[in-house]
Design goal:
The chain contains 15 helices and 22 strands. The chain is α/β, with parallel strands linked by helices. It folds into two domains: 258 residues, 3-Layer(aba) Sandwich (Aldehyde Dehydrogenase, Chain A, domain 1); 214 residues, 3-Layer(aba) Sandwich (Aldehyde Dehydrogenase, Chain A, domain 2). α2 runs antiparallel to α4, α2 runs antiparallel to α5 and α3 packs across α4. The protein binds NADP nicotinamide-adenine-dinucleotide phosphate.
């Protein structure tokens, strides 16, 4: 079966044989996708001219209600999505839940938040600015929804959440969406779009999807569009420098790869609550979705005196994780999504081994997955490495192995821990396990500018924290530098990407007239 694309409010099948999507456990061919021969320029025009105006005829609250209906619909079809996740991503129920339930949770969060903006259709930003000696001439800033298309080019690891975490704030802002999911796992995104379209929840042109290569998509961007990309740093560079993107100066948001760290405080001796919480979190991050999360822990920093004990504790827990076919009883970790990803992970492990000792796993030949044929399946054994070189190492800080792989690194003192965390050159997240306020007071501000999020866990928080890798819709997601420099989510802050700020200079009566039915932009950060 070839999946249809939905463009210009019609289902369209790409030409040719297309690319095949596979089951990464059995190697079975599932469906195919093709974008060949499709008129993507016309699809973007249709979305700009039809979908956008229809969405912007609604208030923020009305658009929020639409998000609530989409969430309800997706909830009602959850079983179908878990089945596609199992077949196309080799995802266990809990791995698929991170993606599917994460998407529904995020939509609901924005549906709720939209109520604060009420019947408004644009935003007033700050108080009037005096511009003359009397009040007769003033300036007023406003935020208007952009009138183009929100174009999403997404990564393979979150086909559900990756669409809806972006679409929720875009729709709420009044922008139509065109999504291009990553080819290997496009099926789930396509099915969700098909369900929403068939339910008639959105106006024509509000939601479009193109599956497959779609390499000329960016040739057709216009100055009012927004491009939001999630994927590797190499592809991000190509997006940012695409001639049409540069010529139109469109707003570009990049969520790229990241060599995130988890840091054990000097106070967290073996047996302390903080030590145990870190062991649990590292094991979870390495094994959930087989480590295929942009936020996963890649570098584990610990005081030189504690690092070996930490490694032993993590390895002991990893040894109890059963890896194999998620359809089998007792299996805790599934495969990577494709043989290509498996090959990339093996190459990454080999590169890291040039600088590291192996503490656990690390040898594909010595590993047999449960209930799967290694010749066709895409499994990678959980692998814990140790790098004695610390800050002087190179590959450990530069290589993101997108799988169940992490490296222990000893640090000598707080300054060394700070330097190693910063050596990631910009990360999505760092987590710190410590109750030492002097250490935290020095470390957190010293790494904040190079991290989008810092999770600090101590014994009193215990298991109530939301997790190193979990992205909460109410908190910022994105990171500087290597992580792409993007910002997503953060509650209503996310709407800023889909609005443009402008200032009107004129007489106070006009400014007051334009301010009628405008919500206060301060609500976005309230
Ligand atoms: P990728 O190879 O860079 O691909 C990402 C997307 O770009 C795919 O949809 C791909 O389509 C598309 N693409 C590639 N070249 C293109 C071009 N010339 N024109 C238009 N589209 C193009 O990344 P990936 O392998 O899917 O994802 C893994 C990476 O994503 C990891 O490095 C991970 O860290 C990162 N990631 C980051 C975040 C975050 O939030 N920061 C989240 C998830 C993943 P095709 O599939 O059709 O090639």
């Amino acid at each position: 079966m070839k999946l249809a694309n939905y463009l210009s409010a019609s289902w369209q099948t790409g030409a040719g044989e297309g690319q095949t999507l596979f089951d990464p456990v059995t190697g079975e061919a599932l469906v195919s996708v093709s974008a060949d021969g499709l008129d993507l320029g016309a699809a973007l025009d249709f979305a700009r001219q039809t979908g956008g105006p229809a969405l912007r005829a609604l208030s923020y609250a009305e658009r929020g209600a639409l998000l609530g209906k989409i969430a309800e619909l997706l909830q009602s079809k959850r079983a179908d999505y878990l089945d596609i996740s199992l077949r196309n991503l080799g995802a266990s129920e809990s791995d698929a839940s991170a993606d599917v339930d994460g998407a529904i949770f995020t939509l609901k969060s924005y549906a709720r938040a939209a109520r604060a903006l009420g019947d408004a259709r644009h935003l007033k930003d700050g108080a009037p600015v005096p511009l003359a000696k009397t009040d007769i001439f003033q300036g007023q800033h406003f935020l208007l929804p952009q009138t183009g298309v929100a174009i999403f080019i997404n990564a393979f690891n979150f086909p559900a959440w990756g669409l809806w975490e972006k679409a929720a704030p875009a729709f709420l802002s009044g922008m139509p969406v065109l999504v291009k999911p990553a080819t290997p796992t496009a099926w789930l995104t396509q099915r969700m779009v098909e369900d929403v379209v068939n339910a008639g929840l959105l106006p024509d042109g509000a939601l479009s999807i193109v599956c497959g290569g779609a390499r000329d998509l960016l040739d057709h961007v216009a100055e009012t569009d927004v491009l939001s990309f999630t994927g590797s740093a190499d592809t991000a560079r190509r997006m940012r420098t695409h001639p049409s993107v540069v010529a139109a100066s469109i707003r570009v948001n990049i969520e790229a790869d990241s060599v995130n760290s988890a840091i054990l405080g000097p106070d967290a001796a073996p047996g302390s609550a903080e030590f145990d919480l870190m062991v649990k979190e590292v094991v979870r991050e390495m094994t959930v979705k087989a480590g295929q999360k942009c936020t996963a822990i890649r570098r584990i920093l610990a005081p030189a005196a504690t690092v070996r004990a930490l490694g032993d504790a993590i390895a002991a827990k990893l040894s109890k994780i059963s890896v194999g076919n998620p359809r089998s009883e007792g299996v805790r970790m599934g495969p990577l999504v494709s043989k290509a990803q498996q090959a990339a992970a093996f190459a990454g492990i080999a590169a890291l081994k040039e600088e590291c000792d192996v503490i656990f796993g690390g040898d594909p030949a010595a590993f047999t997955p449960v209930d799967a044929d290694p010749a066709v399946a895409a499994f990678v054994p959980p692998t814990l490495l140790y790098c004695a070189a610390g800050l002087a190492a190179k590959k450990v800080h530069d290589t993101e192995v997108f799988g169940p792989v992490a490296t222990l690194i000893p640090y000598t003192d707080t300054m060394d821990a700070i330097a190693i965390a910063r050596r990631g050159k910009g990360s999505l997240v760092a987590s710190v396990y410590s109750a030492d306020s002097a250490f935290l007071g020095e470390l957190v501000p010293a790494i904040g500018d190079l991290h989008g999020r810092i999770l600090v866990v101590n014994g009193s928080i215990g298991n109530q924290h939301t997790g190193h890798g979990n992205v909460m819709p109410t908190c910022l997601h994105g990171g500087p530098g290597r992580a792409g420099g993007g910002e997503e989510l953060g509650g209503l802050r996310a709407l800023l990407m889909y609005h443009r700020r402008f200032v009107v200079q004129g007489d106070p009566a006009l400014l007051a007239q334009l301010s009628v039915n405008a919500a206060d932009a301060a609500l976005l950060t309230a």
